[in-house]
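Quick entry, no commentary yet.
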Amino acid sequence: MYCYDEKHPEGCYSFRRGYGAHKAIYQLANIPNISNMWCYKLDIHDYFNSISIPILLPILKEIIDDDIHLYNFFEKILIEDKAYYEEKIIEESRGIMAGTPISPFFANIYLKEIDTYFKNEKIPYARYSDDIILFANNKEDLDKYKNKLISFLKKYKLTINPKKEKEISPNESWEYLGIEYKEGNIDLSVATKDKLKGKIRRKARSIRRWMLKRQATEDKGMRVMIKVFNRKFFETGIDHELTWSRWFFPIVTVKNGFEEIDNYLQQYIRYIPTGKHNKKNYKTKYSDLKELGYRSLVNEYYKFKNSII
């Protein structure tokens, strides 16, 4: 479906060659005076499953105006609400069938009118699938843009996730697509850090239980923990294309978030031998962690930055 890329408005960054989350962040961060603007961001609730097929089909037909056979094929699979499941025929509304190869394309074009409107009005705006953010020079304009966006969503029978709707005043930090922007600096968002900390805690407790059950050595337990997160952060093989080093290093401009994660991970590596958090854990020195294979996010980040200078 890449042949229809030129029919997407510039404000849509998801699932497109030459666009993506990095470009969205770069372009937003480079808007003049962005730090002093008002900001509004939202997440569309259950977007893929909420898309109205009767509304989508005319949009799809306009996009695919050069291949009637392809359009007819898509129309057929979109309007068919029956499926064979556990030897029974079930019938339910499935939206654009999230998880199928073509669903991202449908998700992009469904809100083409919204993307086009904000682009034509030269309003700072970005959409990545169901995540939308926009900016205004003053509160009055922000309210106007916000109301316009909400009216568009109602027109397309979509609802906002109230837990992810936020209005941000000038000079406050804003978060989008896993990053935080504040006064010219790009860092890891609070949500990104919290999500990873949860994974660190769960993995450390799991390895601690495994170590006791298998009567493995303390060094073995810590080495396993280090290997798991080295792979997540730095592995560049085919199965690990979305590692932290490839995703965050090119766009983050400060070390703060990486330093926070480094400290948290070291704390839980030291937790594995004792199953507790106390001063005794620090008998395992930083040099010991390095001997076990530990790689600091901060150090690797600076190596990456120096390599591209």
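second:
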Amino acid sequence: MSRLIWDNTGERMYETGVQNCALFPRDTTTGGYPKGVAWNGITTITESPSGAEATPLYADNIKYLNLISAEEFGASIEAYTYPDEFTECDGSAEIGTGVFVGQQSRKAFGLAYKTLIGNDVEATDHGYKLHLIYNALAAPSEKAYATVNDSPEAITFSWEITTTPVPVTNFKPTASITIDSTKVDKDKLKNLEDILFGADGEEGTAKVARLPLPDEVVEIFAED
């Protein structure tokens, strides 16, 4: 067995950035995510998994085993703006053109976004990770409107996100999937991205952006 070597050229990896975020409001009838829209102005998405905590059990004067609690996926989103389609997800309903009433039922949604993978040779051109989030709900958020002064700043909106896992055949239910562009088949990745972000084509052949459920994602990347 050869000796371990650290910091080889091209192996000094890091992750950074967030881009190409798309919002997918959930269809309350089918449970799917049939139409996505671009979400401009995203500054930060912080993934915050929780749970998976150990509860020790003791017997015969020794530690007998650990029981692990269920793991949950949460996140926070910060942005300078949000698409009109997010208003229902943020607890508002449009009662007339440009007129919104608050404190309404919040609509579940999905997200897709990319984070960059870099190394010491290619920098952030090395690749990216594609993140898919399912069955998310946004909690009410604080909005601070301040006077314009000699150091103006744009308002930053923020939301805390909770999720409920969705089924995945042969796996435990999940609310998140991550695809590493440096490891998957490029053609299969393009197929998925054409589904997620839409694709141009002649009339009747263009693809509308939608969020495929986990089983469809698994099928796309299945071994030939």
